[in-house]
Write a structure and sequence with these properties.
Distance between the termini: 60 Å
Radius of gyration: 36 Å
Low-confidence stretches: none
Helix content: 40-55%
Largest sheet: 3 strands, antiparallel
Structural class: mainly alpha
Order of helices and strands: HEEEHH
Shape: elongated
Mean pLDDT: 77
Length: 150
Amino acid sequence: MKKIRLTSVILSLLLMTPPIISADDTLYHWKSEDGQSHFSDKKPEQHTPSLKQLPLKSNKLNTMVSTPSPPANMKSTKPSLPSNSNSNAKKKKKKKKAAEKAKRSKLCKKHKEQLRALRGRMRNGYSAKQAPKLLQRERTLNDLRRQYCH
């Protein structure tokens, strides 16, 4: 019961506090002599002919924080790359990835076949002299199979 009262008291106090940014605040936009755009909530000290007054739009959900949106006529300052160079790079990357996958698949198949043949030979019997060499070859082929067949 006390928890609910405390929560409701805190909530009512928060709702009664005035917002930090009021709905009538204004944003100023101007361009300096070197062509750089500036945004501020205060007028520039020097007179600038390109000064524009932009009203801030209040956020109905949270009036404590308001972010101004740049004017619609302002162009983006991000450098744009030609779209075809990006798609060509993606195609090359995809092609390279497919070639690597095909190579891995081919090597996987090769090592599996060699391992199968070696095990068949080992089942048919081998001398004690051949044992270390055959077991080492089996370990090597198993490692290669794990590397390429995952």
